[in-house]
Design a protein that fits this description.
The complex is a heterodimer of chains A (483) and B (231). Chain A is built from 18 helices and 16 strands. With 483 residues, chain A is α+β, with helices and mostly antiparallel strands. In chain A, strands 3-2-1-15-16 form a five-stranded antiparallel β-sheet. With 231 residues, chain B is α+β, with helices and mostly antiparallel strands. The chains are: A alpha+beta (483), B alpha+beta (231).
Chain lengths: 483, 231
């Protein structure tokens, strides 16, 4: 008897999605899909708006990583106002944006690890759902929970100081920034009372990473064998191969680590990246053109970034990077749960970058904006917390946007997430007649590892209950679970 | 000439001959909200947000001159609720997307919405379809946000005295419009003036949006009216 299992919505991720798993009469998984059931449509309603509005307008598609959209749009408009392709801003302009971006990366990674992912590690995939959540973490691991909250607060306060607001600020404008960092603001983050200072954030980021490494050492089977599948990995890297989350060139390595996109200027991204749509998801399916739609999919995000970059340009994170790379003997890492590991190395790197930037006197300079010969089209990319984010705008003679194209980080991970769901579904649902909560959570964990932001990725509002239905091939309801 | 004596909500006030109720109230540290009124311009009385009660009758405070012994009611629950209703109507009859509007923080309509604690309008949204006008070199006219105060119609003129803005149509079809040929001749200074005297985000000087950081905008730290009430 064929069955279809639906998990809706997926929990502890940003946005709304559902999973369907189709089983044949013998109980084998024949198809599994992650459906994105919301639609945002920013590419459409940005049309006709004045171009300088884009960084403030488009960031409204997300409340979690608006800074990434704010900056990617601003970078695209830098090109349009003639401020170069990522290297033409004044030092204060670029460094204020970098500070904003790394603060965003820091707070988002802290949010994901402490609030969303840690319950699965601390309580197990089949732990009691009543406690397998952030409240459970707060009750049983108070120190860890407090660190998560305070690290996020530090990042958010830094975003406030650079963007003007913790969420949906206006700091980045075409060609630069609208404020610098005052001495008083700088000292608040450098010399603030514990724990809200940069030194403590570096210490706590290292602590979170050490916690994960300790957990990994005791649970290698669990961490290393969960949803492992080969993938190409794509990200921005600095021209010298270093990790750079704000600006760089596009690099993509295949499953064996061979470069298949070799440090390409992202202004030409559309020549190397294509996008496909399917009738069962509002999310697009990007692919590398030369490899075609079937073979050209790739993964972005922390795991990808650590697979593409040659080194990390801060000492503590570089040391951890070397240990991390040694674990896979320098080869690309394809273990889905290692995304948490990679994310925590980035958390540490972000804390180090923030500390370095705060000590940079360029942040107090006054030449905030630069402009040159205007252009009609511009592309802006950043490495958002969840991966490479593409913004592309074209304007008309009246300064209105006539075309906007977004490839959001989670969109890049559409096929990898579907593959992860398929992998876990086959491993856990094959031959099973009863759905357990732990089985459902394993599917969600596979998706959660990507820290997806489903609302960002589709350009929806509302709230859905989590409901899993087991239906036979005649449509008869066999079992149903609801959260 | 001796001062005119009058009261606002029981407070004894003095005014000069010819002062409107709004002007006289301001001089006495009493705030009466305005939207279409702009200092230096001849009052138009179009928005009615400055409505007060004199001798039991509703009057526009910006167009009514103060008279000796006048008893003005200003902050009564009845009048305040009426003003709030006007603000709500202005919001629902346009398309005001404050979160992304570059005038946010400097917008007088938004500031009044905050002052009157407008949460959810009591009236249905009309969602009018209004075209923007972008084909002038310095100005961008987003008519979705226009409250028809006519400040621009009254105040923005070219060096040779020609009016750049005008009103077309009637009733709920009324639209502000711009002479694009004249607008092309506006100096940078006049284009900026047009933006700054617009109480909302309808008239925008191109390519300067979001230049003032959040926290330093006009109404970020002090609510509208406090500059008068705080005297």
């Amino acid at each position: 008897m064929g069955r279809k299992i639906t998990i809706e919505p997926v929990t502890r991720v940003e946005g709304h999605g559902k999973v369907t798993i189709q089983l044949d009469d013998a109980g084998n998984v024949t198809q599994s899909r992650l459906h994105i059931v919301e639609f945002r449509g920013f590419e459409k309603f940005v049309q006709g708006r004045p171009y300088w509005e884009a960084p403030v307008l488009v960031q409204r598609l997300c409340g979690i990583c608006p800074v990434s959209h704010h900056l990617a749009a601003a970078k695209a408009l830098d090109v349009i106002v003639g401020a170069g392709t990522g290297d033409g801003l004044t030092p204060v302009g670029e460094k204020m944006r970098r500070l904003m971006h790394y603060a965003q990366m820091f707070q988002s990674h802290a949010l994901h690890f402490f609030h969303l992912a840690s319950p699965d590690l601390l309580f197990g995939f089949d732990g009691d759902p009543a406690t397998r959540n952030v409240i459970g973490v707060a009750l049983l691991h108070k120190e860890l929970a407090v660190q998560g909250v305070m690290m996020r607060k530090f990042g958010q306060e830094l975003i406030l100081a650079t963007a003007g607001k913790k969420i949906h600020g206006t700091g980045a404008i075409p060609g630069g920034i609208n404020k610098n960092l005052s001495i008083a603001e700088r000292d608040k983050f450098l010399k603030g009372p514990d724990p809200l200072n940069a030194d403590k954030m570096v210490e706590w980021a290292q602590g979170a990473l050490d916690f994960f490494k300790g957990f990994h050492a005791k649970n290698k089977d669990y961490i290393d064998n969960f949803a492992v599948f080969p993938s190409a990995h794509l990200s921005l890297v600095r021209k010298d191969g270093a990790m750079d989350l704000y600006h760089g060139v596009i690099r993509c390595v295949d499953a064996d680590g061979k470069k298949i996109i070799n440090d390409v200027d992202y202004q030409n991204y559309y020549k190397i990246i294509g996008e496909e749509v399917k009738n069962w998801s509002y999310m697009k399916f990007p692919y590398i053109r030369k490899l075609g739609m079937d073979k050209g999919w790739y993964t972005v995000g922390p795991l990808a970034r650590l697979n593409t970059c040659d080194f990390i340009p801060t000492p503590l994170a570089q040391k951890e990077f070397e240990i991390y790379k040694a674990y896979t003997k320098g080869k690309p890492n394809h273990m889905s749960m290692h995304m948490h590991y990679a994310r925590l190395i980035e958390l540490l790197h972000s804390a180090e970058v923030i500390r370095d930037l705060l000590n940079d006197k360029d942040l107090q300079k006054d030449n905030l904006v630069t402009k040159g010969k205007k252009k009609k089209e511009g592309v802006g990319l950043v490495e958002a917390p969840r991966g490479t984010l593409f913004h592309h705008y074209r304007i008309n003679d009246l300064d209105q946007i006539e075309m906007g194209n977004l490839i959001v980080s989670t969109t890049n991970n559409n096929i990898p997430m579907n593959n992860a769901v398929n992998y876990v579904a086959k491993a856990n649902f094959t031959g099973q007649k009863e759905i357990t909560e732990g089985m459902m959570n394993k599917v969600e964990m596979a998706i959660r590892a990507y820290d997806p932001c489903l609302s960002c990725a589709t350009h929806a509002l509302g709230q859905m209950p989590l409901e899993v239905s087991l239906v036979d091939s005649d449509g008869n309801l066999l079992d149903q679970k609801r959260k | 000439m001796s001062d005119i004596k009058f009261t606002i909500d029981g407070k004894a006030c003095k005014a000069k001959e010819g002062q409107s109720i709004v002007e006289a109230a301001k001089a006495n540290g009493v705030y009466i909200p305005v939207l279409c009124h702009f200092e230096g311009l001849k009052p138009a009385g179009t928005c009615r947000i400055c409505t007060v009660k004199v001798g039991g009758r509703f009057m526009a405070g910006c167009t009514t001159p103060v008279a000796e012994g006048m008893i003005v009611e200003n902050m009564t629950p009845e009048i305040e609720d009426m003003r709030k209703a006007i603000i709500e109507m202005l919001f629902v009859e346009g398309n005001h997307m404050c979160p992304t509007c570059e005038k946010s923080g400097n917008c007088e309509l938004q500031a009044l919405g905050y002052r009157y604690q407008m949460l959810v309008p009591r009236f249905p949204y009309l969602w009018p379809v209004r075209e923007v006008i972008a084909d002038t070199p310095r100005l961008y006219l987003d008519r979705n946000r226009c409250v028809q105060c006519l400040r621009c119609v009254r105040d923005i003129v070219t060096a040779d005295g020609k009016h750049v803005f005008a009103v077309t149509n009637r009733g709920d079809k009324t639209l502000i419009t711009i002479d694009t040929k004249l607008a092309a001749k506006l100096s940078d200074e006049m284009a900026l003036k047009a933006m700054n005297q617009c109480p909302v985000g309808c008239i925008l000087r191109k390519e300067v949006g979001y230049k003032i950081p959040v926290g330093q905008r006009k109404f970020d730290s002090k609510p509208i009216g406090s500059e008068i009430e705080g005297r």
